Model the fold of this input.
Amino acid sequence: MGDCERERGDDAQMIKVLTDPAIVSVLLWTTSWSSDDLLLWIARHDPPFHALIDTGALITGKTNEAVARFCLENGLPWARAAVFLDSQDRKMVAFKEGGPALPLEQCSIPYGKRFTVGRMRRSNM
Done:
C-alpha cells in the first residue's frame, strides 16, 4: 500500500479546523460523570455529532467496537452504522441492526449515515 503522503499545508489545515470555534466548542461538565454518561450525551446530542475523537482517552474500559455499538444502541437516530478501528488497527464497521462487525470496504451504507469513533489507546482497554 505504501506510505501515506500529505500535501503541503495539510497539518495546518487540520489544526485550523480543530481549533475553529465555529466547529469545535468546549463543554465544562460540572457534575461527576462516567464513560457511559459521556457516551449517552454524545449519542443523544442535538444537533447530532457525526464523529467521536477521544484524544484525551476519557472513555475507559471499552474497546472501540464497544463504544461504537453503545452509541448506535443508545442514540444516533440518523446513523445506520459506526466505523471504528479494531484491536489490530483494521477499519471496521458495526451496524445498527446488529450482527458481526465487517471490514469497512464491505460497507455499502452512505457516508452520511455512518458515525465514526476515533480514540487514543490506553492500557485498560
About this structure: The chain is about 20% helix and 20% strand. The chain has a mean pLDDT of 88. The two ends are 29 Å apart (CA to CA). The longest strand covers residues 114-119.
